[in-house]
Each structure stands twice: as C-alpha cells, then as structure tokens.
Amino acid sequence: MTIVVVGCGNAVSSGSPPPSARPVPVITPDPHLTEPATADAVFNAIRVGKLPLSVNNASAGDTTSPIVKRINADIGNWPLIISQYRSSDVLRTTLKWDPTKPAAQGSAPYVFVGLNIVIEFGPTTGKLQTPDPNRQEQAERLVALVDPLLWPLEQRSVAPLPTKTAIPPSAAPATPKPKKTPKP
What we know:
By secondary structure, the chain is of the alpha+beta class. The protein has a domain at 39-157. It is built from 3 helices and 6 strands; from the N terminus they run H-E-E-E-H-E-E-H-E. The protein has helices at 39-47, 88-95, 133-150; strands spanning 53-60, 67-75, 78-85, 110-114, 117-121, 154-157. A 6-stranded antiparallel beta sheet has the order 1-2-3-5-4-6. It is elongated.
C-alpha cells in the first residue's frame, strides 16, 4: 500500500530570505597587566608598537634590591628606561612617588608609573624643557601603547599627556556614604 500526500492551498511567497544565524560575539581580551607586571611584558608591547626602538642592555637586581629588572633602550635615539619594582608599594616608597609634583631637573621629561612599573622617556641631563614636536609625538605613541597595560597611568611630565584608558570602577575611589544622624 502506498500513501501519497499532496499539499493543498496557495503557495505564498514572503519575498524575504530566510533568517540568517546571528553573528557570534567576539570577546576582546583585556590587555591590562596585573601586579607584579614585568618589564619584559611592557618592553614587548612597545616593541610591537612600531616605534623606532632599540635595546641597549638590561640588568637585574639582587634579592635585596627594590628593582627586579631594568631595561635600558632608546626610542629614536632618546633614552627609554623601563624599571620593574617588586611591588607598587616598594616603587612608591623607594621613589617617594607623588604624581602631583612637577617634573624636576635630573629627571626625564616624561615619567610614567603604573602598577609596579616606571617608564622614563628622555634624557636626565641638561636643561629640563618641553621636547620638540617629534619627541612629544613619540611620547604620545608610547602612552597609547602602555596606558591599556598599566592603567591607571600616572605621570610626571614637562608636557603632560592625556591618557585614554578610564580608571576601572573597581579602582576608582569609593564615594563616602553619608553618616546617619540619630533622631532626637
């Protein structure tokens, strides 16, 4: 026995194609480093950033030194020093770091601090003055590369540069709660 099924009715064309599958969301990795960040990770991020970078040398601290590693390099023949401290507390205590103080004679024109890393860009000798536009542009490119890694990025610079990464809500200072006053 054979059964034949035949459809009845008018064929209706909707004119629109069948629905397509929704695109799969792409997860953007968080580039932010965690403490203790390494000087090597920061250097490698700068290296792939297409700045005219050359490395001179690196040194490691001993077990009693506050510095774990220091990388001495150049960006376009201008000194770049990346120092990795044991922790952000050790960095701040050792350097007596205060980002509200202006750049001073004997320091690089641009000094950036994030997590346990200090980045110094520019010579530490000679008169401390605002760098030429080419150096300013290189410093801006440097900040663009390291800001997402080390935020919130603090600086002490002769020509302060804007940072682009907002302070994450977990690192933002808490808003004080109003005190309850006792009812009479």
